[in-house]
Each structure stands twice: as C-alpha cells, then as structure tokens.
C-alpha cells in the first residue's frame, strides 16, 4: 500500500469520527430521567481522557503517516502511550461509580468490580485529610475497602454510620 493510500484512509477515518461526533451533538434530546443516586467522577476526568485520546491520535497520525526515520521512533512510542492513557482514563470514568443508600454503599472500582459495604458491616472507619480534603476510609468485615472524598460525594449516611460504629 502506498503512502498516499495510507494517508487517505487515515483522513477518511478522522472525517468519519468528526461526523459521528457532530451527529451526536445534534441528535434529539431524550426526556429527563428520574434522579439517579449514582455518583460519578467529576466531568473533568472524561474531558482529560478525551484530550489525551485526541492528542495521542493526532500525534500518531503525524508520526505514522510520514516516512519512517529513526527520529520518529520516540514520537511513535509517545503517541501510542498517550492514546492508551486516554483510553484508560475514559474506561476508569466509565467503570467507577458510588451509590449511597440509607443502609449501605454500593460502588464499582475503576477495574469494574462491583462491591458493597453495609453500614452494619463496618469494621474500621477513619476520617483523614489528604491535600486539605477530607476523606472517609472505610473497611468492612469482609475486607472490602473504600476511600472517598466526603466533600465531593454525598456520603453523609456512611460517615454517620462509621462514627457510630467507631464510638
């Protein structure tokens, strides 16, 4: 396959991706859903992942579409690493959530494992300050551990249950 054909295929893929993104912005808005108790990471996380993904893709197009030279090897490696980092950040955002219920906390790790800590099963509880932000660190009797920012996520019932178990 000639260099021109490779570049043409890459340009077609980029144009198709841009068309899909534009179409998603103009599609009809769905009716409002019922309020979910599921809390996710801040919106900055998927935006950072998307920026890494796009930067890695653009760097990859520039590095892989040109003729190979020894000077381009670091750019090719960097483009793959940045692209994979963007995918990892987006997958972590997609997988992780926290759902605070009146009697338990359900959550999913960034690797996708579903876990649950019932308030009656709290074995240890402590509040710590990390970089000026208060975090609740909870461990259940089954060994399930959760560390969550109490200022960002609504976990008042968990904190109250942890304090009552600790005293």
Task: Break the fold down into its secondary structure elements and pairings.
Elements: H1 3-26, E1 38-39, H2 44-65, H3 73-95, E2 97-100, E3 104-108, E4 114-118, E5 122-130, E6 133-140, E7 145-149, H4 156-166
Helix pairs in contact: 2-3
Defining traits:
4-stranded antiparallel beta sheet, 167 residues, elongated, alpha+beta
Describe what you observe in this structure.
This protein has 167 residues and is an alpha+beta fold. It is built from four helices and seven strands. It has a four-stranded antiparallel β-sheet with strand order 1-2-3-4. Strand 6 (133-140) and strand 7 (145-149) form a beta hairpin. Helix 2 packs antiparallel against helix 3 (73-95). The model has no long low-confidence stretch (mean pLDDT 85).
């Amino acid at each position: 396959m000639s260099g021109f054909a490779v570049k043409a295929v890459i340009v077609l893929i980029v144009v198709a991706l841009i068309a899909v993104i534009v179409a998603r912005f103009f599609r009809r808005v769905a009716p409002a859903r019922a309020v979910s108790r599921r809390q996710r990471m801040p919106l900055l996380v998927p935006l950072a992942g998307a920026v890494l993904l796009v930067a890695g893709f653009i760097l990859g197009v520039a590095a892989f579409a040109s003729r190979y030279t020894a000077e381009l090897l670091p750019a090719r490696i960097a483009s793959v690493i940045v692209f994979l980092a963007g995918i990892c950040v987006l997958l972590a955002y997609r997988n992780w959530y926290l759902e605070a219920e009146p009697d338990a906390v359900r959550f999913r790790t960034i690797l996708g494992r579903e876990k649950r800590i019932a308030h009656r099963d709290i074995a240890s509880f402590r509040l710590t300050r990390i970089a000026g932000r208060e975090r609740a660190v909870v461990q259940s009797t089954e060994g399930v551990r959760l560390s969550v920012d109490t200022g960002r996520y609504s976990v008042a019932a968990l904190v109250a249950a942890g304090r009552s178990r600790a005293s």
